[in-house]
Amino acid sequence: MTDTASLEQRIGHCFRNPSLLEQALTHSSRLQDNPDAADNQRLEFLGDAVLGLVLAEALYSAFPDEREGYLARARSVLAKGEFLAQLARELELPSHILMSDAERAQEGHLRDAALEDSLEALIGAIYLDTDYPTTRDCLLGWFGDIPARLQRRLTQDNPKGRLQEWSQANGMAQPDYTIVDEAGPGHAKEFHAEVAIAGVPQGAGMGTSKKEAEEAAARVAITKLGV
Amino acid sequence: MTDTASLEQRIGHCFRNPSLLEQALTHSSRLQDNPDAADNQRLEFLGDAVLGLVLAEALYSAFPDEREGYLARARSVLAKGEFLAQLARELELPSHILMSDAERAQEGHLRDAALEDSLEALIGAIYLDTDYPTTRDCLLGWFGDIPARLQRRLTQDNPKGRLQEWSQANGMAQPDYTIVDEAGPGHAKEFHAEVAIAGVPQGAGMGTSKKEAEEAAARVAITKLGV
């Protein structure tokens, strides 16, 4: 199987017009080496809107009892750049991105911004190659079960909030965070945090900021306590 | 013809499921008088996303040579609340909005926010009642010619910028604005502005701020000069 065929298999769509796929994967830096190429920015604009509708519709159906505010927050979580970049990695897009040699040498194809743009452009390309229902089915295949995906994201996104809600709901004391260690030079500090509930340690974690370290500790506690 | 039938004629869609139309027109204040009614907030969430895709797609096709930045700005102009409220008025929605007696007594059905919400909810309702292509055709009927609509909006939106571009393009001096009068008490000031090009007065206008007065003057000049 060629590279393109295996990519199309992962995406779940075989392009009738392969130049759309190529354009979707073309980072603007490629125009430096290849002035005639069309980059993926216009397709990204279109794909962003397709994604917006697919998510809105899926959330509208999946949560019939939720108000607009919840649906809007849920959509913003699932449309976040960092999450779309993760989705692009799941589809193994990075190795297919076409960019200038200079940009690739700097690992530009691994950056969130480039991955997010390519993913949205890919959505735009599939839409132009097919129609709305086909594109929607294809995207929903990438996302999998939307409520489950959302739940995982919310947990990953705000572990401290989630741990606090859980301890409150169970009549326990608020989680208490301590930075127990701080190491490394100023520009590359590493923080170690611990979280305890009612004096009992529940998790420890580290990160490049206090917040990151505390969130890492909260994630450990969430797993340990079966939140 | 009933009220509903004439509304459907203006909208360009006859609902298979009339309860969707009713829900789209139901302002949240109606729940005070009618606790069992469903308001239009969820439909508005959905309709906003449908509108986003319809506009993105229309702009993508209408401006094949424009970059993403232009398309995004154009879309934000056409999706602005104040503009959607104007569209709602063109469709004569205000008299059909269902709200509490108290809210209606305060003319809530004439407010931009209520009109924008109803219009977006109406789009969501048409989408649920039909499919994407039908909804798109219906919306494009409301908007009319998209580039022409956009041009009119841009002129209305930024008359000073437009007048300046025009005078530059015609090798003339920059428009020069003067506040010639300022009247009324502090909380209800009224400003009078004049615009001149190369010393020749081209328009005068008034407003509740200097900016508003200058924009009004620029609009007069735009009409006078045939910009």
TrEMBL record, chains A, B:
Its cofactor is Mg(2+). Its main location: cytoplasm. It is found in: Cytoplasm. One of its GO terms (molecular function) is double-stranded RNA binding. The active site is at 48, 120. Residues 158-227 form the DRBM domain. Its EC number is 3.1.26.3. Residues 4-131 form the RNase III domain. The keyword rRNA processing applies. GO terms for cellular component: cytoplasm. It comes from the Bacteria. Mg(2+) binds at residues 44, 117, 120. SMART domains: DSRM, RIBOc. Pfam families: dsrm, Ribonucleas_3_3. InterPro entries: dsRBD_dom, RNase_III, RNase_III_dom, RNase_III_sf. It catalyses: Endonucleolytic cleavage to 5'-phosphomonoester. GO terms for biological process: mRNA processing; regulation of gene expression; rRNA processing; tRNA processing. Belongs to the ribonuclease III family. Digests double-stranded RNA. Involved in the processing of primary rRNA transcript to yield the immediate precursors to the large and small rRNAs (23S and 16S). Processes some mRNAs, and tRNAs when they are encoded in the rRNA operon. Processes pre-crRNA and tracrRNA of type II CRISPR loci if present in the organism. PANTHER family: RIBONUCLEASE 3 (PTHR11207:SF0), RIBONUCLEASE III (PTHR11207). This is Ribonuclease 3. It comes from Cerasicoccus arenae.
